């Protein structure tokens, strides 16, 4: 077949960390964009015919490999194109995987707050996110990235959540200067900077059209 295909909605969502990784690694792929708008059933019609184990977006189709879980896709493309981004040092790997779990929790609280916008969801976000950010801040310390001067797969995941916090929930991250510096360091990477400035980059929305809050 030709280029690998990456399929996702016309938003950041679960696909953005993967797109950052692909841009950083210089992977040439076909960006298949589905419109997240009422009445467009293109994805509904196509998904039974793609050969995916569990048809969902995002998906990655690369010759015989067909994946549809966002974190599985991220780790697959990294293992294929730049495996050094997943450390073979178990002491380092356990640190990034622990942070991965914490950042995923923050992502879930964020999504709950955006999609439901209920007092309960917002209160949960307000109470649960600050201590988790404090823990992540301690792990990062004065390092440039979570494993030092070099990126790991985790950085693509963390940056996306920090971007949303910095843009839409500023008060939660502004007290952590090292986390703000981390965002700047990530955006200053030449390949990332070029991607952000390219027509392919999506600034917003971060969530789908069913969100109670348009973010």
Helices and strands, with pairings:
Elements: E1 5-9, H1 16-25, E2 30-34, H2 42-46, E3 59-62, E4 65-67, H3 70-81, H4 90-116, H5 119-140, H6 153-168, H7 170-173, H8 177-188, H9 190-196
Parallel strand pairs: 1-2
Antiparallel strand pairs: 1-3, 3-4
Helix pairs in contact: 1-3, 1-6, 1-9, 4-5, 4-6, 6-8
Q: Could you please describe the fold and organization of this structure?
A:
The chain is α+β, with helices and mostly antiparallel strands. It is built from nine helices and four strands; from the N terminus they run βαβαββααααααα. It folds into two domains: 80 residues, Glutathione S-transferase Yfyf (Class Pi), Chain A, domain 2 (Up-down Bundle), CATH 1.20.1050; 104 residues, Glutathione S-transferase Yfyf (Class Pi), Chain A, domain 2 (Up-down Bundle). The chain has a four-stranded mixed sheet, with helices on one face. Helix 1 crosses helix 9 and helix 4 runs antiparallel to helix 5. The radius of gyration is 17 Å and the shape is globular. 29% of the residues are buried.
- Beta-strand proportion: 5-15%
Return the average pLDDT rounded to an integer: 95
Write out the strand line-up for the largest beta sheet, numbering strands in chain order: 2-1-3-4
Number of helices: 9
Q: Which residue ranges are poorly predicted, with pLDDT under 50 across at least 5 consecutive positions?
A: none
Tell me the helix content: 40-55%
Shape: globular
- SSE run: EHEHEEHHHHHHH
Reported by name, the CATH topology of the largest domain is: Glutathione S-transferase Yfyf (Class Pi), Chain A, domain 2
Count of individual domains:
2
Major sheet size, sense and barrel closure: 4 strands, mixed
CATH architecture of the largest domain: Up-down Bundle
**Global Rg:** 17 Å
């Amino acid at each position: 077949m030709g280029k690998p295909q990456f399929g996702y909605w016309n938003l950041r969502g679960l696909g953005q960390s993967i797109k950052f990784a692909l841009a950083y690694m210089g992977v040439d792929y076909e960006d298949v964009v589905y419109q997240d708008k009422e009445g467009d059933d293109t994805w509904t019609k196509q998904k039974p015919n793609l050969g995916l184990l569990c048809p969902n977006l995002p998906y990655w189709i690369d010759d015989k490999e067909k994946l549809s879980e966002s974190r599985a896709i991220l780790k697959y493309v990294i293992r294929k194109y730049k495996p050094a981004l997943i450390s073979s040092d178990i002491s380092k790997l356990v640190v990034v995987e622990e942070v991965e779990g914490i950042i995923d929790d923050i992502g879930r609280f964020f999504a709950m707050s955006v999609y439901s916008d209920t007092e309960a969801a917002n209160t949960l976000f307000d109470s649960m996110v600050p201590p988790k950010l404090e823990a992540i801040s301690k792990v990062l310390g004065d390092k440039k990235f979570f494993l030092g001067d070099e990126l790991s797969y985790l950085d693509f995941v963390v940056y996306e959540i920090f971007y949303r916090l910095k843009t839409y929930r500023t008060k939660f991250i502004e007290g952590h200067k090292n986390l703000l510096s981390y965002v700047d360091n990530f955006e200053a990477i030449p390949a990332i900077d070029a991607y952000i400035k390219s027509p392919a980059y999506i600034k917003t929305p971060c969530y789908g059209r069913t969100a109670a809050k348009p973010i």
